[in-house]
Amino acid sequence: MWQLYQFPLCPFSRKLRLLMSEKNIAFTLERENPWDTREAFYLMNPTGRTPVVRHSEKGIVLADSKAIAEYFEETVDKNPMINGTATGRAEIRRLVALFDENFYGDVVAPLTMERMTKRIVLKEAPDSRILRAAMRLCDEHLDYVDYLIDNRPWLAGPTMSLADLAAAAQISVADYLGGINWSGHEQARSWYSVFKSRPSFQPLLSDRMEGVHPPRHYSDVNA
Fold first, then answer.
1. Fewest Cβ atoms closer than 10 Å to its Cβ: which of 37, 45, 92, 191?
2. Helix or strand or coil: residue 73?
3. CATH label, 2-75, candidates 3.40.50.300, 3.40.50.10090, 3.40.30.10, 3.30.200.120
C-alpha cells in the first residue's frame, strides 16, 4: 500500500489525497511537519517539502505533487483526471499551474505564514497588512473562478479534472485559515460546495491543525 507523507495544511498534499481517493488508490497518511526537518524525510525528498509517496513493496519513492499526479494518471486507468483532447489536457495543466503557483503564492503561502507558522513556530503576531493583501488577491482569484464556472460545468471543461482538485485543495487551506470572503462569489461557492460534498473531500474537512482553528463554516457542506 502507498504511504503519503503529508501535512494537514499543505495544499499539495491535499491535492494528492483528493486524486488518490477519486482514483480509489489505497493509501495511509504519514504526518510530516515542515519545521521538523527530519533527516529520513530529506533522504526521500531533498527539498524537504511535502508530499512524498512511498510504496515499500514496489520500492518506489516519488516526490513533487505534479510528478506524483502524472505518475498516477499514467499508471491507474480509473477516473482519469487529465483527459480529453490535447487542447483540453493543456487547459487542465494550465489551470493546475495557475492554482499551484499563482493562487498558492498570492494567497495560501502568506496566509500560512501569518496565521500558522508565526503562531506555532515563530511565536510572533501576524502582519495585518500582509493578511489584507492576501485576501484582496484571493478575491481576484475567485473572480476568475466565477468566470470559469459561468462558462463551463467544471473549471477546465465538461468534466471534473485535476484542475478542480488543485483549485479545491488550495482554496480549502485558504478557507481553513479564514482568508476567504465568499460574498459576491456565488458561482465559486456553488462549485466548491459540490466539491465539499464528495466522499474524497470529507476527510479533509475533519482535519484540524493544533493551535489553529477554522471558521465555523469550514466544515459545512452547504456554506
1. 37
2. helix
3. 3.40.30.10
